[in-house]
Design a protein that fits this description.
Two copies of one chain form a homodimer. Chain A is 41% helix and 19% strand. By secondary structure, chain A is α+β, with helices and mostly antiparallel strands. In chain A, a hairpin with a 5-residue loop joins strand 3 and strand 4. Chain A binds a DNA duplex through helix 7.
DNA sequence: CGGTATCTTGACGGTGCTCAACCCTAGTGG
DNA sequence: CCACTAGGGTTGAGCACCGTCAAGATACCG
């Protein structure tokens, strides 16, 4: 039962959930829908009054800029809630595309209102998670604003690893990264060409190993000090939460 | 009464507030404290269990990176809640400094819990405002990742203007920008030198006028199309809110 | 009036972009 | 089984945007 809901599993990792809360959250994942890799699920997918839970697969969200430029805003993993950022708006401001085959669970905005009224505790938790994601966003802002290409790549690898560790998709520090170098470049404000160069350089320097789209961080400590990396998903302060 | 609370005033602009809600929010601003311009109010100010409402003045938040680099994360205006992003953590991850003389109203994290339990409607509103700010953050991410220096400056001017219009601090499109060019550079991922150059260039091209730290956007429409600017503070969707 | 912070302007150099060619793999259809 | 195609990755050469360094100008403040 709890197994069936990625979101329950993720939230449960931060806080113990009552049965009522579990039911409230699991309700969000009752519908599901599959998508092939490399398909746009928005703006064509659903109307702006829907969000969805990622049940399986990788996705990324992005914005398009003048002259064909693109900025990738975020990468989404199982257990993430997709479309939260557009909750305040009538129109989507963000486009989303699948990187791998995906399974998604759409639910209406109004389901959020049920959570707000019925469970202050879940509200505080969702609020908190949104803020953690905002903190990660701020880290990424630092990377784009004040780091060199090499450091940005290092930062990305560390962030993805921390995120996958949270989701439990990590075996012995090795992980798959099913994103093209163009997508990575659009995420870090670089070109695919330079992403390729930096990966090669990091490999030559013995910091990472690559094997067919899978990465191994050989010197994680050195990498962490290089970019002053902090794992934001560890050690939240949930002490002030309502019961 | 309503006048005395910047936050009530700001929230009231999005939604009509009940008396109970007004009281709940106004409560946050009962203490106040003054700061001179150019002083760090954190980490030295208060412990991590406090947030505060900005009652008067400009501030900016930032992170420090290796080798003396700095990334300015946000600029704060009257009515903003400061420290929200650090709500999930025991330690501050963000430093804050005043740009002008300021008046701030500290309140404990636990006050948030009172709002969550007593007013689903205020909860939804605070949640929504946090998400709007996140959307603006995403716009800034686009600017840092995929815009040239000139466009970043244009974007910044438009964002500040939109923000000040919301706060009602705008007379005939003219506004003060009490930030040094070094701070602006640290916000946009540029050097103070290049910020200066870009300002001069925009002025030479007839897009803006400068007068003693005050700005006038002479060709706002041209500037908006240049960076595909969207005012996120207009037209929120509050229809799904609980009563 | 001296001192400090900020802004401006110039010269020079490097990081990362552009353009281009090439390789590799996977998928498709004959 | 193989030719063909398309998408992704790699590598090289040239160049431009923006950083660095430095000097000078201006404003503000004690």
């Amino acid at each position: 039962m709890a197994q069936s809901s990625c979101l329950v599993e993720k939230l449960g990792r931060f806080l113990s959930l009552s049965e009522a809360d579990t039911a409230l959250i699991a309700e969000l994942e009752k519908d599901e829908q599959s998508f092939k890799a490399h398909t746009k699920i928005r703006p064509l997918g659903w109307k702006a009054e829907h969000l969805c839970v990622v049940k399986e697969g990788w996705l990324y969200s992005y914005r398009l800029l003048p002259e064909g430029r693109r900025q990738v805003l975020d990468v989404h993993y199982p257990g993430d809630v997709l479309g939260m950022a557009d909750l305040p708006f009538r129109e989507y401001s963000i486009a989303v595309e699948t990187a791998t085959d995906c399974c998604l669970c759409p639910f209406p905005k109004s389901a959020m209102d049920r959570i707000f009224t019925q469970s202050p505790r879940m509200t505080a938790l969702l609020f908190t998670i949104a803020l953690v994601e905002q903190t990660v966003l701020l880290d990424r802002l630092c990377a784009l604003g004040r780091m060199e290409a090499r450091e940005r790549i290092v930062y990305l690898l560390l962030e993805v690893q921390a995120r996958l560790r949270l989701a439990g998709c990590l075996d012995r520090n090795r992980f798959e990264l099913p994103l093209t170098q163009t997508v990575i470049g659009d995420m870090l404000g670089l070109t695919n060409v330079y992403v390729s160069r930096m990966f090669s350089e990091l490999e030559d320097d013995g910091l990472i190993d690559r094997d067919n789209g899978a990465f191994l961080l050989k010197e994680p400590d050195q990498m962490k000090t290089m970019v002053d990396f902090k794992d934001r998903y560890a050690a939240l302060d949930t002490g002030w939460f309502p019961i």
